[in-house]
């Protein structure tokens, strides 16, 4: 039986603190599994959090509440939050990792602030140049991991190489893949295409056969094929790919729904279709994959979507628990050290 | 009445030369409009093209056929095609622009070869540093132009600025927009985000109010909102955004179709839904927007999709005709010269 202790920022996100406390409760009731003993340190403003906490007995009895006088706002600049919000719930939750009180943190708050504070307070793992943001995405068949999603706008070959090692460790610990297939995003699959950094990263990756299962380049047109476990890109490109694809998916799905609801006859018959559709499109439901992982930091830091409801937040907690229980950071350190 | 003469590479694309000749016929029958006199020079291998050409009387009577002994293959490297395929239909069609025989070329052939040969044979317009690939994309409401789609993997601020000027001219001539709204793709809308090149391009663009209607940054999550006419990105990012979005659209649409066809009851009722869906999703039909424009070259060069059928190829021809008739290149030259 492993003991996992996680810090929760109760004040981050559009529906906090209710969605957060309900999310912890949802985690206990639906996602905890049988082999782990999980408890929480919950950081937030007493007057807002305690009245809710008192209603969720299982959460209450498995957590320690820590009152924080300040809150980081969604439009705070990262540099401002880092300097001026040291008494906030997010800052205090991250400090709890450094103190050794907890091993991970989950927050739905300001992404830039979370990265800036986590990087400053925790620092990076040994020999890691830059942290990266990674998340899990669906395909028609199996899920894959995409990184970086925006922590770094310009990446050199060494950083891209490290992202591959970190992404591979993430795929092992969170997706349970044995020998994750890693690919490098490029705009052509010929070796001559792409930027200098990408071509150099390719050369590094193809030599690292002892620690990585590198499959070469992948194009954006192939990212939903489901035959790769980890796709590596710089943060600018990863961010654009993720947002463009999500926006397109939402647009098409809303067009389909609008058409089904647009007249009496399609509405009537649409009932049968909708039922089937929601089961297959449900596979693309972001709730069950909520949570971006900040890889390469001294501690497990999970960013939940700002608009996460309790179900999504519960899944972000599960992400953190899986990463901690399966020693994500130890696997990253061992991967990186074996090539230094 | 304007006279427009266009060179057609009859040998490029998966279904050439049939789809090409039928495409010219489709153009004459459906897209030519009333104010333009269009004729063609058709380049291809006589034994393959002539038997088809003889069946399409309207094409035959409005075109000159030029026999070419060679063909550029879809997997030819651009450098090889440039050096070794000078007798090919594509090469000869591009040379016809330089000779003054025609003012534009349309090809469904090898994109890299088309760009390399066009750049070598035609050169760039005065003061243009690099050509860019642009195309028209749908949103729920109005279409927009995205560039660069892959001609340049790394772009400095000056090139991004020129892409904005060229894209704006393209939106005026092909989409008929009076004062096109131009935006720069970034991963955040705050002025501090993005790469150095993007931030410098932003500074250049916001000072060019006399020639551009610059609206600032746009994120990939907003690209389908329909309130921007031209989105500027470097070729790597533009290529990834385009391919990721297309792949996601195709995946969701095929999931919907699969579900509708998956059982007797949904199949029966799906008939009503499908009819409505195909009209609204038809807006996303790439056929009517087929054709990427190589902007910044001394001549109008249109790349049609490799898998274009005759309808799609006909629309690529219309692209070329609109660009020529509305003086696209003169507008680019005037835009660029006013800031030099």
Count of individual beta strands of chain A: 11
Main sheet of chain A, how many strands, which sense, barrel?
11 strands, mixed
CATH superfamily of the largest domain in chain A: Isopropylmalate Dehydrogenase
**Mean residue pLDDT of chain A:** 90
CATH architecture of the largest domain in chain A: 3-Layer(aba) Sandwich
Give the low-pLDDT segments of chain A. Answer: none
Summarize the structure.
The structure is a homodimer of 340-residue chains. Chain A has twelve helices and eleven strands.
Q: Could you explain the architecture of this structure?
A:
- Chains A, B: It holds the Pfam family FA_synthesis.
- Chains A, B: This is Phosphate acyltransferase.
- The structure is a homodimer of 340-residue chains.
- With 340 residues, chain A is of the alpha/beta class.
- Chain A folds into 2 domains: 1-128 and 296-327, Isopropylmalate Dehydrogenase, CATH 3.40.718.10; 136-286, Isopropylmalate Dehydrogenase.
- The first copy, chain A, has helices at 18-31, 46-53, 57-61, 78-84, 89-99, 111-122, 157-174, 196-206, 235-260, 264-281, 310-325, 328-337, and strands spanning 2-9, 36-44, 63-67, 104-107, 132-137, 144-147, 181-185, 213-218, 230-232, 292-295, 300-303.
- Chain A has an 11-stranded mixed beta sheet with strand order 3-2-1-4-11-10-5-6-9-7-8, with helices on both faces.
- In chain A, β7 (181-185), α8 and β8 form a beta-alpha-beta unit.
- In chain A, α1 (18-31) packs across α11 and α7 (157-174) runs antiparallel to α12 (328-337).
- The longest helix of chain A has 26 residues, at 235-260.
- Chain A is globular, with a radius of gyration of 21 Å.
- The interface between A and B is large, with 53 and 53 residues.
């Amino acid at each position: 039986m492993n003991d996992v202790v996680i810090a929760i920022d109760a004040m981050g996100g559009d529906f906090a603190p209710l969605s957060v406390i309900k999310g912890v409760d949802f985690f206990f009731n639906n996602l905890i599994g049988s082999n782990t003993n999980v408890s929480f340190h919950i950081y937030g403003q007493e007057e807002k959090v305690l009245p809710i906490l008192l209603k969720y007995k299982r959460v209450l009895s498995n957590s320690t509440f820590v009152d924080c006088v300040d809150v980081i706002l969604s439009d705070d600049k990262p540099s401002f939050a880092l300097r001026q919000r040291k008494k906030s719930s997010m800052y205090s939750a991250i400090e709890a990792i450094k103190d050794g009180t907890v091993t991970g943190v989950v927050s739905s708050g300001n992404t830039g602030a979370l990265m800036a504070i986590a990087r400053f307070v925790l620092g990076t793992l040994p020999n890691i140049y830059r942290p990266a943001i990674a998340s899990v995405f669906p395909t028609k068949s199996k899920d894959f991991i995409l990184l970086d999603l925006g922590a770094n706008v310009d990446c050199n070959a060494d950083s891209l190489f490290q992202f591959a090692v970190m992404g591979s460790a993430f795929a092992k610990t969170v997706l349970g893949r044995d020998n994750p297939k890693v690919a490098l995003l490029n705009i052509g699959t010929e070796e001559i295409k792409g930027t200098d950094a990408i071509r150099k990263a390719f050369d590094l990756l193809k030599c690292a056969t002892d620690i990585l299962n590198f499959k070469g380049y992948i194009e954006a047109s192939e990212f939903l094929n489901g035959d790769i476990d980890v796709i590596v890109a710089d943060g600018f490109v990863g961010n654009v790919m993720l947002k463009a694809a999500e926006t397109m998916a939402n647009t098409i799905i809303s067009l389909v729904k609008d058409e089904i609801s647009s007249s009496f006859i399609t509405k009537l018959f649409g009932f049968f279709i909708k039922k089937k559709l929601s089961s297959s499109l449900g596979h693309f439901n972001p709730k069950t994959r909520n949570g971006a992982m900040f890889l390469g930091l001294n501690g497990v830091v999970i960013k939940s979507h700002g608009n996460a409801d309790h179900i999504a937040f519960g899944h972000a907690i599960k992400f953190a628990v899986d990463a901690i229980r399966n020693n994500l950071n130890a696997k990253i350190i061992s991967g990186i050290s074996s090539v230094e």
